[in-house]
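Q: Two folds, back to back.
A: First:
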Amino acid sequence: MTKQKGAFGAKLNRAVVKFSNNLIIKTVANGMMLTLPITIVGSLLMVIQMIPNLPEIISRACTMGTTVTSSFIAVYILLGMSYALAKEIKSDVPASMILSLASFFIVTPITDFDTGGDKLIQAIQLGYLGSKGIFVAMITAIVITWSFAKLSDKKITFKMPESVPPFIAKTFAAIVPAAILFAGMIIVSLLLSFTSFNNVHDLIYTLLQTPLEKLGGSIWSALLIMFISELLWWFGIHGSNVTASIITVLYASQAYANMEVVANGGTAQNIINSFFLDAYKGPRALAVAVILLFLSRSEKFKSIGKVSIIPSIFGITEPMKFGIPQILNPLLFIPLTLAAPLCIAIAYVATLIGFLPVVSLAVPKNLPTFLTGFMAGGWQGFVIQVIQFFAVVLLYLPFMKKLDSTEVITEAPEKETDSPVTMSEPEVLVSASESAVKKVEGLES
């Protein structure tokens, strides 16, 4: 049975590693990570904007910051993913980013606005640059960056004399691949203009983004992904890293749509989104650390609790995952895999009944526990994370108590062995006498 479990675990590990190392998956994960700083800054500005009686000049400044963040998020994602992919395949990074951005603008419709008189304004609607354009941005970044690298590898370019400086020669080398890709994107854009979709954005939004948003809007899909993430952890695989790209594809557009609506003075509607999942996975690490430190009797678990308590405040679980261990521990399978879905379900119900505000801003993942809830949902978010904390403690406690009792029994013989043997006073005198006799006999001999 143990051999079968080990063989299955090894196969699963290989499959997950292969999935994680897939070029597209790595590009999505790494590209989205590059947009995190600007997303968090925009979210912090949104928090400041919510402060009552804020001076108008500060309110306008915050509105400007959040609008630039949310309304252009597709552009930032495109640049981040193009950079990540070009670096991964060792292509020309600056050329790939510029070409991807230009290609994105080629397929993005430009609208004519008649202001009356002789003036005609041409503009790109912000919706195409915001949450609605995320999927087009992702596809464009991947296709253009990869195609540019392949065309460059085939040496389809102008050959410059050796006397030309390398920087100039490199610039001219990109002209032919860029021209080919430009022509291709123009043709695609023109062809789609004769269809009912009119442009690439509406095509992708209708055929791909809308169905994915409906799937991502389901609480059941969110609970399943949380379960899978922790199931992978049970096998010793970093589940959060594996599911990060899936969460991005399914839930990022809803998160940025919420951010965009709130930045424009509206009300967020998408309960399930990537910001929500990040904020309300629950204080699971702290709950387990508290059980180890304060509710355990074994020296091993108390020691692990002492080591883990500070990191757990910031959501770091590795000391407990490998120390207890939780990995491949049959007794902890249920609490480990169900804790995250339980926390998400609590936050979802609280939002559904109107107690918890819909999350519309990004909160840094490694902020202290309870502060993340407060930033994401005010005092209500703090209360929900406290409820989650006690729920996780109650979920883990019976299983941890069983483990703790077993560990106490294991440690008992060791304590008996380590304890010093004491002798009564007569025994000490006899022992000393025997020792003295032996010394005298040794001297006589």
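A: Second:
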Amino acid sequence: MFTPGMDSARETGIVEADTVLIPTLFVWPHGGRVVYLSGSFTRWSQLVPMSQVEGYPAVFQVIWNVTPGLHQYKFLVDGEWRHDEHRPFENSEYGTVNTIRLSAEANYDIRPETPSGMDLDTKAFSDTDTKAFSDMVRISEGTSSPLVPGISEEDLRVSRHRISLFLSTHNVYELFPESGKVVALDIDLPVKQAFHILYEQGISMAPLWDFNKGQFVGVLSASDFILILREFGNHGSNLTEEELETHTIAAWKEGKAYLNRQVDGYGRPFSRCLIHAGPYDNLKDVAMKILQNDVATVPVIHSSSADASFPQLLHLASLSGILKCICRYFRNSASSLPVLQLPIWAIPVGTWIPKFGESNRRPLAILRHRASLSSALNLLVQAQVSSIPVVDDNDSLVDIYSRSDITALAKDNAYTHINLNEITIQQALQLGQDSYSSYELRSRRCQMCLRTDSLLKVMERLANPGVRRLIIVEAGSKHVEGIISVGDIFRFLLG
């Protein structure tokens, strides 16, 4: 759900590293129809919508990131300013306000004491249920308490061990399809031609072959073209359309210092070696290699000679392929892994808009459908994400813009006659789609799930070809609640 104050985080996708923020649960237990929270942590200039706790229509709650220190806050209930008499309060220039002092060493939840006359049959906020409720809504980094409700740390450890054991005893050969093709590009190809090849082949990346060295030297990906087009759209640069026609991939690698480079949070490239795997590597090592190097896929390269000459490109290994192996193996024995039956809101996985079920402190990058393509490309680089949910004016999901969508600009040389600052995300997505197939393409690319879906169900969806993330939406309204990627699944499963 969208809340005031999230605009800046959504537009930048980045929270300053030196800012300590504590996810804090605020609860208003005294009824009302529409309830907002405001306080010194919003500079009293924003109203934060609070949502009803399911099953308790008189109880409203919201999680808000608050800096350490003393804060004042109060509630706007049906247009009237109120404070919770059961919490510490004082008089100030804003009238009677509640107060809270936070330190950086602990997590906090501002829950109500059970008011007299308030009927909570299941004692959701009673002292005897405090720990269970706390575990359910307060999942954060660095805690040593049980991570998920309904499952013990031992069950979680056993589940992770069984998955880890499976991955460690199976190798990359199990990822190979019965038939298929792998596309590689010569580094002497012009950048423009490489751009069109990726689009025509329907792929977002390809390994690079250096004929002179007789080896694979890197990978050309959609991220590289994002950097190129950002430079192309910068009118102050010396980059011209002719350079795309004549410059080779090798020239870009050497001269522009973009290709075969990793990009930091400020869009600055830095060198790294080719990340690859062998056919006899176990699946766990490959998964960890993908996660640790923050890449989408790794080329599987094999050479029968001792000096590694004449290497063969066999496959492109991805987390989706490994996840498919896990689902296939454990599908008929899922009961042996209790964690797979849990709903995704109950476990620390994915990136969520701050509210009930928040799993981490990283803001979720979201853009409006009228935002410019330039802002989308900048956010993909700055937030270091592979996709951005696109919402309408009601914060309902309408589409998703991914790094791989950049290749659609190769159609009819669209990149040569568009202005990145003027074309909208919606228009950019339409460039690579035929009118009769746009709905089908959007449905296939924009995969959704609900917070109540089990981890196993989400894993099976993510194991489908071409699906790398699911947008978590609210049933009915399709309000974006979060996003869960294949990488998120593996970071949780491998601990």
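Q: And?
A: The longest strand covers residues 56-66.
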